[in-house]
Amino acid sequence: MIENRPWLTGFSHLILVLGVLVVALPVWVAIVASTHPANAFGVGHIPMWFGDQAFANWHQMLIGKEGQASHMLRMTLNSLIMALGITFGKIAISLLSAYAIVFFRFPFRGLAFWVIFFTLMLPVEVRIVPTYEVIANLNLLNSYTGLTLPLIASATATFLFRQCFMSIPGELVEAARIDGAGPIRFFFDILLPMSRTNIAALFVILFIYGWNQYLWPLIVTTDDAYYTLVMSVKRMLSVPDGDIEWNKVMVSTLLAMIPPVLVVIGMQKLFVKGLVDAEK
Amino acid sequence: MSVYFPQKFLPYLLLLPQLAVTAIFFLWPAGQAVEQAFYQEDAFGLSRDFVGLDNFTELFTSPEYFASLKTTMVFSFSVAFLGLAVALWLAVMADRVIRGAMVYQTLLIWPYAVAPALAGVLWWILFDPSMGPVALLLESIGIDWNHFINGDQAMILVVISATWKQISYNFLFFLAGLQAIPRSLIEAAAIDGAGPTKRFWDIVFPLLSPTTFFLLVVNLVYAFFETFGVIDATTQGGPGQSTTTMVYKVFNDGFVGLDLGSSAAQSVVLMVIVGLMTVVQFRYIERKVQY
Fold first, then answer.
1. Where is the chain membrane-spanning (chain A) (predicted)?
2. How far apart are CA A176 and CA B277, in angstroms?
């Protein structure tokens, strides 16, 4: 505290509270909307307070109507498979390649590094059509492999692990070698335990990245057995004007955002570390 | 690090998975895009002719492409500026309060986890012309809101949705930057009689400039490439072309318009832009290391 200005502190709190409220407003409306019947939404009217259909809406969306099973659980599972597949895939291949680049000397090491660096310049959005064609040629449309594999190359994760490995003293490698540990043993018994905080921080960031994928699942899946939650919301909105069932859309939207939001709030420290590290 | 393992074959094996994925899903499609950009294919994919630079000349003489370039610029700089301004203001306030800064942080960072497409849907319902509370509020003060018809309003909607998601990120970095400023500097200025506003503009803001510049680049990259979902879920590039950014146009021309040659040429242009942005980012980061 530099000086005592109670009114300024009060003003700061006021601005912050307003900021928090504005940021939360759309989610408030979404939660309220998910508790009303479909006919509560009409011209000039949207409910701003809770209705009594919360259980019915969520039940119908998650379990399904009588005789008509719901796809929501399936899509949740798909989202989870895709998010975890991308997360573990990225972490695994980046750990391995960073290990090779830092702890070994071999011809074409520099070239390998630049090839990986190149991926930074090619986000999937800018080369979407040819990437789709490659997946189609490989017969990977409508498959979990097609959903995850093309997204798991990551220059960011490789750089992060490279940075982290380079700070490990050479004496440690020497000591391990004198004790008779080979490169594989060193990797599993020394390197992995030493990097676990970095791995955990990256896990949080990558899980959110994987869960929130939108364009990619939208184009590589046409079979609803492979739809994910985030992309399915778009399909619920693609109905003729005015026929959107907002209560159901909001249930899906909330369901699609709850897991990553919980991850961020529950693992806030790791999340902040992951964000800061990933941008180094 | 100067001690290495002597194995000669193992490192290639370790690199293989990442290089294989990069080659198959990054380099190959990128090469295809470059090749495709020089061909004109009919809509059924039955035949294609080599057309040289025609796709590019067509692109650079097409008013629609320049419209999308302008849209991209307006969109990206609005998102970056609005996101930075709001986040900086909130971070300065959070830095001031002694109690509760962490609580505010928790309450402000979660939108980072919301997918861009969902952010678009959430703000759409608030601005829905027939029932959205904000749209109705605007109507009551005489503004006729309909982002399905009015291009400028559609742009405002996507800018707000995209910014909302990015405020959390900027806030975290600004707060960390503010907390890293030595207290003694601020105290000295306070003793010399500088008020909070003067201290902010003369000391805090200049000292934050590395953070601000870094965030500007990150925000522009975000607005360029990661906001596809916002646009696709809310306006789908419309009405007309008013929210068709360059990235949206690549998708739209390729998958909806089936003009593969033009879409590929646009991909090539975008790759060049990302390349330039990456270089800027790295130049800057190298400088930051020396600080």
1. 7-31, 80-104, 111-132, 144-165, 186-211, 249-272
2. 42
Query: Cα(A181)–Cα(A203) distance, rounded to whole angstroms?
Result: 28
Same domain assignment for residues A78 and A64: no
Q: Would you say residue B289 has pLDDT above 50?
A: no
Tokens for A170, please give them. 């050479």
Q: Do the Cβ atoms of B12 and A106 come within 8 Å?
A: yes
Q: Of A28, A51, A69, which closes a domain? A: A69
List the single best residue of A129, A190, A237, A246 to mutate versus B (max B Cβ within 10 A). Answer: A129
CA gap A189, B230 in Å, rounded: 44
* 8 Å CB contact of A5 and B196: yes
Are A140 and A253 in a shared domain?
A: yes
From chain A, the residues in CB contact with B115 under 8 A are: 211-212, 214, 230, 256-257, 260
Residue B22 has pLDDT above 70, yes or no: yes
Q: How many CB atoms lie within 10 A of CB A52?
A: 9
Range of the domain at B98: 54-290
Domain that holds residue A33: 6-69
Give contacts of B32 with chain A, Cβ < 8 Å: 130, 133-134
Cα A208 from Cα A87, distance rounded (Å): 9
User: Which portions of chain A are predicted below pLDDT 50?
Assistant: none
Query: Residue B49: is its pLDDT beyond 80?
Result: no
Identify the bridge partners of residue B147 per DSSP, sorted by sequence position: none
Nearest to A214 among B14, B104, B116 (CB): B116
Query: In chain B, which among 25-44 make CB contacts under 8 A with chain A?
Result: 25-30, 32-33, 36
Percent of residues, chain B, with pLDDT higher than 70: 95
Average pLDDT over residues B63-67: 88
Whether residues A16 and A79 fall in one domain: no
Chain B residue numbers touching A13 (CB-CB < 8 A): 93, 97, 100
Whether B1 shows a pLDDT value over 70: the answer reads: no
Query: ipTM, 2 decimals?
Result: 0.86
Q: In this complex, do B3 and A33 lie within 8 Å of one another by their Cβ atoms?
A: no
Q: For chain A, what is the domain count?
A: 2
- Report yes or no on A1 lying in a domain: no
Helix H or strand E segment including B49: strand B48-50
Whole-number average pLDDT of chain A: 84
Q: Both A42 and A153 in a single domain?
A: no
Please state, in angstroms and rounded to a whole number, the distance separating the CA atoms of residues B229 and A213: 9
Distance between B82 CA and the closest CA of chain A, angstroms: 14
Q: Based on the structure, what is the number of domains in chain B? A: 1
Residues whose CB is less than 8 angstroms from the CB of residue B194 and which lie 6 or more positions away in sequence, other chains included? B202, B203
Same domain, A108 and A164: yes
The pLDDT assigned to B56 comes to: 85
Q: From the CA of A68, how many Å to the nearest CA of chain B?
A: 26
Q: What is the largest CA-CA distance in chain A?
A: 77
Residue range B261-288, pLDDT digits in tens: 888 888 888 888 888 887 777 776 555 5
The pTM for the full model equals 0.88
